[in-house]
Fold this protein.
Amino acid sequence: MMNKRHATLYIGVTSVIDQHRNGTGSDFCRRYGLHKLVYVEHHDRIDEAIAREKALKVWKRAWKIQLIEEANPNWDDLFEQINA
Protein backbone atom coordinates (compact mmCIF):
# COMPACT_ATOMS: atom_id res chain seq x y z
CA MET A 1 0.00 0.00 0.00
CA MET A 2 1.15 3.53 -0.63
CA ASN A 3 -0.18 7.02 -1.16
CA LYS A 4 1.91 8.32 -4.06
CA ARG A 5 4.75 7.03 -6.18
CA HIS A 6 8.02 6.62 -4.28
CA ALA A 7 6.49 7.86 -1.02
CA THR A 8 5.64 5.86 2.08
CA LEU A 9 5.35 2.12 1.50
CA TYR A 10 3.46 -0.33 3.68
CA ILE A 11 3.91 -4.09 3.59
CA GLY A 12 1.36 -6.21 5.35
CA VAL A 13 -0.73 -9.37 5.33
CA THR A 14 -4.50 -9.38 5.14
CA SER A 15 -7.33 -11.55 3.95
CA VAL A 16 -9.57 -8.48 3.59
CA ILE A 17 -7.77 -5.82 1.54
CA ASP A 18 -10.78 -3.48 1.83
CA GLN A 19 -9.91 -2.89 5.48
CA HIS A 20 -6.52 -1.43 4.63
CA ARG A 21 -8.02 0.67 1.89
CA ASN A 22 -10.77 2.20 3.98
CA GLY A 23 -8.54 2.83 7.01
CA THR A 24 -9.87 0.17 9.38
CA GLY A 25 -7.21 -2.51 8.86
CA SER A 26 -3.98 -0.77 9.79
CA ASP A 27 -3.18 2.20 11.99
CA PHE A 28 -0.10 2.81 9.82
CA CYS A 29 -2.14 2.98 6.61
CA ARG A 30 -4.66 5.30 8.25
CA ARG A 31 -1.97 7.56 9.75
CA TYR A 32 -0.13 8.02 6.45
CA GLY A 33 -3.14 7.98 4.13
CA LEU A 34 -2.04 4.85 2.31
CA HIS A 35 -4.83 3.72 0.02
CA LYS A 36 -3.23 2.60 -3.23
CA LEU A 37 -2.42 -1.09 -3.76
CA VAL A 38 0.64 -1.21 -6.03
CA TYR A 39 1.88 -4.75 -5.41
CA VAL A 40 0.19 -7.93 -4.29
CA GLU A 41 1.13 -11.56 -3.81
CA HIS A 42 -1.30 -14.39 -3.17
CA HIS A 43 -0.36 -17.16 -0.73
CA ASP A 44 -2.47 -20.22 0.01
CA ARG A 45 -1.32 -20.44 3.62
CA ILE A 46 -1.13 -17.64 6.18
CA ASP A 47 2.22 -18.84 7.50
CA GLU A 48 3.70 -18.50 4.01
CA ALA A 49 2.26 -15.00 3.67
CA ILE A 50 3.65 -13.93 7.04
CA ALA A 51 7.09 -15.35 6.21
CA ARG A 52 7.11 -13.42 2.91
CA GLU A 53 5.95 -10.23 4.67
CA LYS A 54 8.78 -10.51 7.19
CA ALA A 55 11.31 -11.13 4.42
CA LEU A 56 10.14 -8.11 2.40
CA LYS A 57 10.16 -5.83 5.42
CA VAL A 58 13.92 -6.27 5.84
CA TRP A 59 14.65 -5.59 2.17
CA LYS A 60 16.30 -2.31 1.21
CA ARG A 61 13.86 0.28 -0.09
CA ALA A 62 15.47 0.19 -3.55
CA TRP A 63 14.79 -3.55 -3.79
CA LYS A 64 11.14 -3.02 -2.87
CA ILE A 65 10.77 -0.30 -5.49
CA GLN A 66 12.39 -2.54 -8.10
CA LEU A 67 9.97 -5.36 -7.21
CA ILE A 68 7.00 -3.02 -7.62
CA GLU A 69 8.26 -1.53 -10.89
CA GLU A 70 8.92 -4.95 -12.42
CA ALA A 71 5.37 -6.09 -11.64
CA ASN A 72 3.58 -2.75 -11.98
CA PRO A 73 5.72 -0.22 -13.93
CA ASN A 74 3.05 2.49 -13.88
CA TRP A 75 2.34 2.08 -10.18
CA ASP A 76 -1.34 1.54 -11.01
CA ASP A 77 -3.81 0.84 -8.22
CA LEU A 78 -4.36 -2.91 -8.43
CA PHE A 79 -7.34 -2.99 -6.09
CA GLU A 80 -10.01 -3.20 -8.80
CA GLN A 81 -8.04 -5.83 -10.74
CA ILE A 82 -7.83 -8.23 -7.80
CA ASN A 83 -11.46 -7.66 -6.81
CA ALA A 84 -12.91 -8.11 -10.31
